[in-house]
Design a protein that fits this description.
Distance between the termini: 33 Å
Helix content: 40-55%
Protein name: tRNA-dihydrouridine(20/20a) synthase
InterPro entries: Aldolase_TIM (IPR013785), DUS-like_FMN-bd (IPR035587), DUS_fam (IPR001269), DusA (IPR004653), tRNA_hU_synthase_CS (IPR018517)
Strand content: 5-15%
Function: Catalyzes the synthesis of 5,6-dihydrouridine (D), a modified base found in the D-loop of most tRNAs, via the reduction of the C5-C6 double bond in target uridines. Specifically modifies U20 and U20a in tRNAs.
CATH architecture of the largest domain: Alpha-Beta Barrel
CATH class of the largest domain: Alpha Beta
Shape: globular
Largest sheet: 8 strands, parallel, barrel
Keywords: Flavoprotein, FMN, NADP, Oxidoreductase, RNA-binding, tRNA processing, tRNA-binding
Number of strands: 11
Cofactor: FMN
Number of domains: 2
Radius of gyration: 20 Å
């Protein structure tokens, strides 16, 4: 299977980009790359592998993001990811949360570029699929371009050719993960300079990007754009990606068609796992933003948030919600 280029991707987001969210996003775009939530090596080596790695074949192209700092453990986890059918293994060097720091991985790894290089080499030796790195542009108050340049140089020497650059510093003490996504200033020019200095590498930019015109501007300077929370809160943005960025002439699904496309999947998931193993809300919660910006959006969200109806586990709740926006969604 020939994979599409990583011109557009949806960021790994904890508690959000699970398999149900990714299946939903795939109804909107065939070519956009999708990423799992970060999965720690410990969860894979000592936990329920199927729970963390199972996904639907329709999700391709899909990447597994790993959190860890032990080369041997990352190699074993990457091998599991390849065996389960993922198209890419991504190493998290950008998460600033204290929990991740206590595990000595995430953004703090940027202070140890040789360790990251060793991790990348171990994973590349273990798998035949791409191994990529997602990182910040600096740590705490260090805004030196040389810091991130040297980090990429060291990791690229280990064979990594794709870097996803979240264009903010990570503040490891004093800011929450949410604040780390909002307070450190965005410095897109750093990612642009990285592409100029490393033209042979694939540089993908991430951070605060919300509109198609913004994406257009970034693609003049780098190879790809990764969308974060805007892709979750306003998922219908993805409906324009295939034609605009991949030259796909297929007519995108309307919002109503997306809802109808989700129904067989939701029915199948509930039948497979049962109400005790999977709740309807586990899937419908990812769809709340589908009608963002159009009349009826609030009523749509309210219908999908009705606790009493959700508890009944009837997927036809989606059809009730759809009535709030039809015929606009048709």
């Amino acid at each position: 299977m020939k994979l599409p280029p990583r011109r557009l991707s949806i960021a790994p987001m904890m508690d959000w980009t699970d398999r149900h969210c990714r299946y939903f996003h795939r109804q909107l775009s065939h070519h956009t790359w999708l990423y799992t939530e970060m999965v720690t090596t410990g969860a894979l080596l000592y936990g329920d592998v199927a729970r963390h790695l199972d996904f639907s074949q329709e999700e391709h192209p899909v990447a597994l993001q790993l959190g860890g700092s032990e080369p041997a453990d990352l190699a074993k986890s990457a091998r599991l990811g390849e065996q389960w059918g993922y198209d890419e293994i991504n190493l998290n060097c950008g998460c600033p949360s204290e929990r991740v720091q206590k595990g000595a991985f995430g953004a703090c790894l940027m202070n140890e570029p040789q360790l990251v290089a060793d991790c990348v080499k171990a994973m590349r030796d273990a798998v035949s699929i791409d191994v990529t790195v997602k990182h910040r542009i600096g740590i705490d108050e260090n805004e030196s371009y040389g810091f991130v340049r040297d980090f990429i140089g060291a990791v690229a020497a280990a064979g990594c050719t794709t870097f996803i650059v979240h264009a903010r510093n990570a503040v490891l003490k004093g800011l929450s993960p949410k604040e780390n996504r909002e307070i450190p200033p965005l410095r897109y020019e750093v990612a642009y300079q990285l592409k100029r200095d490393f033209p042979q590498l694939e540089i993908i930019i991430n951070g605060g990007i919300k509109t198609l015109p913004e994406i257009d501007v970034h693609l003049q300077h780098v190879d790809g754009v990764m969308i974060g929370r805007e892709g979750y809160h306003n998922p219908y943005l993805l409906a324009a990606f295939d034609s605009r960025y991949y030259g796909d002439s297929t007519t995108p699904k309307s919002r109503a068609e997306v809802v109808h496309a989700m129904l067989p999947y939701i029915h199948a998931q509930l039948a497979q796992y049962g109400p005790k193993g999977l709740r309807l809300n586990s899937m419908t919660r990812h769809m709340l933003g589908l009608t963002a910006g159009i009349p009826g959006a609030r009523a749509f969200r309210q219908a999908l948030s009705d606790a009493k109806k959700l508890s009944q586990g009837n997927p036809n709740l989606l059809l009730d919600a759809l009535q709030a926006i039809e015929p606009l969604a048709a």
